Structures are given as structure tokens and as C-alpha cells.
């Protein structure tokens, strides 16, 4: 076992898509050690190196051979394995065959007074070099890709065509075969700077050979190079770069030898809305914009080149030409859109289908206007704001048919805001148009004022209710219309604003609007599905925030349908439980005992005159708490209701410690059960504490 060597394996390809490469890097880190372990090849640490054109695994301390192994298996009891005459039964024969042995090789061993048959199998040591071709081929096949392709005349599929392979155990070539290729000891370098081929003397040399061929073989290394270059450019220009994580990840995995460079465009284009310029650079060309000290966009940008730094001027010129073409288009579209007011685009929304059964975006606009009006009335919003809400709802989707948004889709809403301002619409209306898609993702900000908040709620709820009504609800991990994200957005707006509306009533309103428009569906069924959908989203959010599942269930058991109410009460109950764990554990236990004993059919009309002193003490405490709980819930003071319930701990403990509920006298027993019924009913609108009882 002293003879240990390094294993190097490289899969060379055409350029792999950036995000696919990131996932493949993560997979390879798991697949390689698992593949070696599966055939018991002793090895050390596994290091993964990847670029757009290669996947490399370097495995340290790989043994020359596997260890010889003695495997011992316990089989059936001897009385089952052999008949009365000592002949092997089918059970013994099958057990031996399954282990690759003759039945005569089975042994009998006593184990705690029972005799069992055992099979002992010797596994000889094997030459690791002979095992590796099949093992490494299996690693290639095991990598999962979102999309794969075939090439040449073979049937193998990979993300991109495989062009070369290196497989070395020490200095010994491992002849892995894949897609008509056989692995060797030659790699390739940077496509333009040092294409190769380059000979790799031994496994320990692979990474250094690749690095010497103008390849930075790790994501971390390329990121460091990019960040260093960006920092240098920032120092030279006095500007600050924007490096969005998603775009940065993509750029890191688009080059093997990244070199940040500075480009520029005509300042005339700065008259175009900033968002279009940034979209053109970040989304379409993967350039990083530069901002001045005041945070204003400049006409400079950062290119991350994969070419020869010696030809930087030519590279920059080419990229500047590409940006100029995009920005000429953007300016043209913007100028053309401004030739008419935003409102003129609304009727053209009939050209855009929202969903086949739900009509066009013009139909959606009409529904959002109606639902917004319902919300404003329910929330008691002032008259002036109501007018702005109606206008913003009417114009919110108009920019979808503008030339700029058709070309640069990520700026929908934002361009509508610019066009609304240019047309003289109120500032709050323009801002709401820009913000009504918010929050776009978990943790994103909600619209800044009531105008955008109401339009965002109406838009998201119309989408959710409509798609549920036509049977397009999310299933499992499939959510093509991002309804879960829309639901979280609705909940975020309601919880952060405290808007005084009922989500359930708003859902009812949205479904009424759909029915009035002629859509046919089972209203009761769809309504319940939507409510359950929102409750489920709230439960997930609460659990993610650290609220225990049984706390949530305890609140839900009281028939809560409003997610915001569920969230508020579950958090309050969790906090009270954390601050006074013993009190609430005792209450949970007491409630569970009472709930198990009570007989609902008896009612709560106990005879006060027949109560003992202890029973009377509990009865008086229950009556006082009933009043306190009712008042607290009416004023939305859930925490106070919990405090009131906690006051029942002492009297109920004393009751159970001193009282035999199931008395032999049926009248006494019935009176005590009625008292317990009333005690349990006190919790009915607060929480089902039996859900929280100690298991």
C-alpha cells in the first residue's frame, strides 16, 4: 500500500455554457470520489479544476492496488437453511448462490443461542490501473447536463463535443475510451494563445502544464484575476464598477484567461434611460458598467476578454462597435416610443396573449383595474390615491408593446415609468408602473407607496387566481408561471404594509371578476385551493424564519384562513413559548388532558352550586380568561390573549392534581366534564395547544 500515485483526469471539450459548467464542477467533486469508493480504490483528497473547455479531477495518493478483502455475510437460521436430515434447503442454496459460493462452503455459527449459516467470501486485490478505464468512463456518463448533444458518428452525449482526454496514474496512461477517443498524455492550452498540443509527463504535472498554456484552471482563480483587473481600472478611472453576482458568475465561466479592459461609447447615448444601457451591456454583452462618484452611469464600461492582451486595442475596438450598434437600436426605439403618449399603447395590448383561456394583456389590464378598485374601497384609501391607483393599473402593462421593451425585455415597467413621466402622468403613477412587478424575488423590496402596492397586489392576485381557475396551479417542483414567487410577493406586501384588507375577500373579488368575464370554473374548489396555496407558502416562510411546525399547526387548528393573521399569531405564540417554555408546555399538556376527556355533546352548562372549591376556582379563572381573550382578539392583541391563557396554569394544575374527573357518580362526572369543555373552549380561537403537547 506504500506505492501511491496521483491520478489526473481531464475531459477536454468545446466551450461549455457558463452555468452548466458551474453545476458540472459541483457534480464532479462528488462523482469522482464516489466512483473510486464504489470499487474500493484507496485514495486521498480530490481537487477539481474547470474552465469552459475542460473538466479536471486530480486525486492524490491513489493506491496501486485495492486491498484484499474478506467479506462475511450472515444468512438464515440453520433450522431454516437445513432440513431434519441436514440437507440444504432452497433458502441455503439461494443464499450461497447469491454470494457466489457453493452451498458446501457455508458455515454454522452460534449467535446468542441461535445457530445461523454464514458465508465467507475472499475478494482478491486488483490492479487499480486495470479498474480505472471503466471507472473514469462511468464518471463521464454520470455527469448530468440540462441539455446534451451528439457529434460525429458515436452515440455518446455530452454538453458539448469532447475533443481530447488526459488520464494518467503517475506517468502511466490510462486508456479511457469515450466517443471514439482514447485518453492519452497530451492536453490543449488556451484556444488562441497556446493551443498545443502539450505533453503532460505525469499526473502531478497536468495542472502546471495547463497553467503554462495560458489557462486559469479554477473558477476562484479567474474571479480573483477579474476582481484585481476591475480594481485596477477603478483606481485608474476614479469610477466604480457594478458586478452583479449572476453576470460575474457567467463571465468567470466564459473565459480561460480573463483580462479586464476598458471600453467607451458615445456620450450621446447617455440621454437614453440608464436601465436600457445597463441592460444592453450586462444582459446582452456581459460588460460591467462604470459609475461616477455621484452614482451616475458613465460612458465607460469593463470588458472581460478571453483574447490576447497584446491586442487589447483591437479587442476593445471590436467590443465598442458591438455596444454602439446595440445602443443605436436602443436610442432609436426609445425615440420612436416617445412620439406618442403611453396611454396610446394600452389598446395594442390585445396583440399580446396573457394565457390562452384568460385572454390578452388588455383583458388582464381591465381585470387589474377592477380588482384595484375593490382593494382601495376595502382599505379605505383616500380619493386622490384612488384616482392614481386606477390610472397606474390602467397603464401598468402598456409598455409591453413598446419597441424598447420588445427588444430589451428586462426593462418592462421601468420604461413604462419613463414614458408615463414624458406624457405628463402624475409622479406617483409613473413610479407605481415601474414598481408594480416588485417584489420580484424573496428578499426584494416592495413598492414604495400605496399606489404601487395596490397595483402589485392586484396584478399578482389576478395571475394566481386566473391560473388556478384554469387548472394551471403549480405541481411538485414545476411552477412555469412563477406563482409561488407571486404569492410570496403578495404576502410580503400585506405583512410589511399592514394594509387593512382581507386576502380571502380579495381572492373572492378576483374570482368574481373572472366569473363576470365569462370564465367557468368550480368557484368553491378553486377558492379553497388558492387559500390553501397561500397558507402553505406562509407556513414555509414561517418555518424558514425559525417558527416550529407544531406552533404553526396549533394556530392553524383554530380555522385561520388569513396568512397574515397566521404569521402574526404564530410568531407571537413562538415568542411566548420561547420566553416561558415551562408555562406553555404545561398548558399544552393540560389542554391535551382536558381535550381528551371532554364530551362535546354535554355542552358547557355546569351547575356552579355543585362545584368543589377547587372546581369553583378553575371555573372563575376560566370565566375571567374568556372575557380577557375575547377582548384581546377583538383588538388584535394576540400576545395578550396568550398571557391571559397562561393565567390558567395554576388553577388547572390544581384541578387535575386534586380532582377525579371520571367520578363514579354520573352527575358529578358530567358536571366536571362540562367544566372541562368550557376550559377547552377558552382556547378555541387562540391555539390548539394539544398540537404542542410533549410527545
UniProtKB/TrEMBL annotation:
<keyword id="KW-0067">ATP-binding</keyword>
<dbReference type="Pfam" id="PF05746">
    <property type="entry name" value="DALR_1"/>
</dbReference>
<comment type="similarity">
    <text>Belongs to the class-II aminoacyl-tRNA synthetase family.</text>
</comment>
<dbReference type="Pfam" id="PF02092">
    <property type="entry name" value="tRNA_synt_2f"/>
</dbReference>
<dbReference type="InterPro" id="IPR006194">
    <property type="entry name" value="Gly-tRNA-synth_heterodimer"/>
</dbReference>
<dbReference type="GO" id="GO:0004820">
    <property type="term" value="F:glycine-tRNA ligase activity"/>
</dbReference>
<feature type="domain" description="DALR anticodon binding">
    <location>
        <begin position="607"/>
        <end position="685"/>
    </location>
</feature>
<keyword id="KW-0648">Protein biosynthesis</keyword>
<dbReference type="InterPro" id="IPR008909">
    <property type="entry name" value="DALR_anticod-bd"/>
</dbReference>
<dbReference type="InterPro" id="IPR015944">
    <property type="entry name" value="Gly-tRNA-synth_bsu"/>
</dbReference>
<keyword id="KW-0030">Aminoacyl-tRNA synthetase</keyword>
<protein>
    <recommendedName>
        <fullName>Glycine--tRNA ligase beta subunit</fullName>
        <ecNumber>6.1.1.14</ecNumber>
    </recommendedName>
</protein>
<keyword id="KW-0547">Nucleotide-binding</keyword>
<keyword id="KW-0963">Cytoplasm</keyword>
<comment type="subunit">
    <text>Tetramer of two alpha and two beta subunits.</text>
</comment>
<keyword id="KW-0436">Ligase</keyword>
Amino acid at each position: 500500500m506504500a506505492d501511491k500515485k496521483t491520478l489526473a483526469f481531464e475531459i477536454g471539450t468545446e466551450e461549455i455554457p457558463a452555468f452548466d459548467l458551474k453545476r458540472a464542477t459541483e457534480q464532479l467533486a462528488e462523482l469522482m470520489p464516489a466512483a473510486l469508493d464504489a470499487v474500493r480504490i484507496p485514495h486521498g483528497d480530490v481537487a477539481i479544476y474547470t474552465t469552459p473547455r475542460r473538466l479536471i479531477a486530480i486525486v492524490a495518493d491513489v493506491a496501486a492496488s485495492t486491498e484484499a478483502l474478506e467479506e462475511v455475510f450472515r444468512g438464515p437460521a440453520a433450522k431454516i437453511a437445513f432440513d431434519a436430515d441436514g440437507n440444504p434447503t432452497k433458502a441455503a442454496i439461494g443464499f450461497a448462490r447469491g454470494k457466489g459460493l457453493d452451498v458446501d462452503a457455508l458455515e454454522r455459527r452460534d449467535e446468542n443461542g441461535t445457530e445461523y449459516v454464514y458465508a465467507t467470501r475472499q475478494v482478491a486485490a486488483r490492479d487499480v490501473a486495470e479498474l480505472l478505464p471503466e471507472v473514469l468512463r462511468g464518471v463521464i456518463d454520470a455527469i448530468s447536463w440540462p441539455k446534451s448533444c451528439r457529434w460525429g458518428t458515436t452515440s455518446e452525449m455530452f454538453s458539448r463535443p469532447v475533443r481530447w482526454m488526459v488520464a494518467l496514474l503517475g506517468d502511466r496512461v490510462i486508456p479511457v475510451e469515450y466517443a471514439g477517443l482514447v485518453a492519452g498524455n497530451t492536453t490543449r492550452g488556451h484556444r488562441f494563445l497556446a493551443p498545443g498540443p502539450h505533453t503532460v509527463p505525469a499526473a502531478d504535472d497536468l495542472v502546471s502544464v495547463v497553467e503554462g498554456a495560458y489557462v486559469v484552471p479554477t473558477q476562484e482563480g479567474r474571479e480573483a484575476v477579474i476582481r484585481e483587473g476591475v480594481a485596477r481600472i477603478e483606481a485608474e478611472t476614479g469610477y466604480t464598477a457594478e458586478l452583479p453576482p449572476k453576470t460575474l458568475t457567467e463571465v468567470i465561466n466564459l473565459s480561460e484567461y480573463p483580462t479586464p479592459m476598458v471600453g467607451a461609447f458615445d456620450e450621446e447615448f447617455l440621454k437614453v434611460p440608464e436601465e436600457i444601457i445597463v441592460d444592453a451591456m450586462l444582459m446582452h454583452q456581459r460588460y460591467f458598467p462604470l459609475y461616477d462618484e455621484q452614482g451616475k452611469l458613465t460612458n465607460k464600461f469593463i470588458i472581460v476578454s478571453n483574447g490576447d492582451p497584446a491586442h487589447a486595442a483591437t479587442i476593445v475596438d471590436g467590443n465598442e462597435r458591438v455596444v454602439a450598434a446595440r445602443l443605436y437600436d436602443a436610442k432609436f426605439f426609445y425615440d420612436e416610443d416617445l412620439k406618442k403618449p403611453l396611454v396610446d399603447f394600452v389598446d395594442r395590448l390585445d396583440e399580446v396573449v396573457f394565457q390562452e383561456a384568460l385572454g390578452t394583456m388588455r383583458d388582464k389590464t381591465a381585470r387589474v383595474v377592477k380588482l384595484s378598485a375593490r382593494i382601495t374601497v376595502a382599505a379605505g384609501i383616500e380619493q386622490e390615491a384612488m384616482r392614481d391607483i386606477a390610472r397606474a393599473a390602467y397603464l401598468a402593462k402598456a409598455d409591453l408593446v413598446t419597441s424598447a421593451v420588445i427588444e430589451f425585455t428586462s426593462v418592462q415597467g421601468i420604461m413604462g415609468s419613463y414614458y408615463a413621466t414624458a406624457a405628463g402622468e402624475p409622479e406617483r403613477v409613473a413610479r407605481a408602473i415601474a414598481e408594480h412587478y416588485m417584489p420580484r424575488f424573496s428578499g426584494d423590496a416592495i413598492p414604495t407607496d400605496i399606489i404601487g402596492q395596490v397595483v402589485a397586489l392586484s396584478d399578482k392576485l389576478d395571475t394566481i387566481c386566473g391560473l388556478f381557475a384554469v387548472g394551471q396551479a403549480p405541481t411538485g417542483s414545476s411552477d412555469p408561471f412563477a406563482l409561488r414567487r407571486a404569492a410570496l410577493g403578495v404576502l410580503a406586501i400585506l405583512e410589511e404594509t399592514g394594509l387593512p384588507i382581507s386576502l380571502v375577500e380579495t381572492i373572492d373579488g378576483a374570482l368574481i371578476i373572472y366569473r363576470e368575464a365569462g370564465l367557468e370554473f368550480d368557484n368553491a374548489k378553486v377558492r379553497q385551493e388558492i387559500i390553501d396555496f397561500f397558507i402553505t407558502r406562509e407556513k414555509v416562510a414561517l418555518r424558514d424564519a425559525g417558527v416550529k411546525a407544531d406552533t404553526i399547526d396549533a394556530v392553524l387548528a383554530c380555522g385561520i384562513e388569513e396568512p397574515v393573521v397566521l404569521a402574526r399569531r404564530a410568531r407571537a405564540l413562538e415568542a411566548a413559548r420561547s420566553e416561558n417554555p415551562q408555562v406553555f408546555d404545561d398548558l399544552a399538556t393540560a389542554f391535551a388532558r382536558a381535550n381528551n376527556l371532554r364530551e362535546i355533546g354535554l355542552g358547557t352548562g355546569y351547575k356552579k352550586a355543585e362545584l368543589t372549591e377547587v372546581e369553583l376556582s378553575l371555573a372563575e379563572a376560566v370565566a375571567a380568561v374568556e372575557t380577557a381573550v375575547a377582548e384581546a382578539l377583538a383588538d388584535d392583541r394576540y400576545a395578550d390573549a396568550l398571557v391571559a391563557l397562561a393565567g390558567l396554569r395554576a388553577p388547572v394544575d390544581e384541578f387535575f392534581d386534586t380532582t377525579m374527573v371520571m367520578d363514579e357518580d354520573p352527575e358529578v362526572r358530567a358536571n366536571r366534564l362540562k367544566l372541562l369543555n368550557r376550559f377547552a373552549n377558552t382556547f378555541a380561537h387562540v391555539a390548539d395547544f394539544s398540537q404542542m403537547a410533549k410527545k
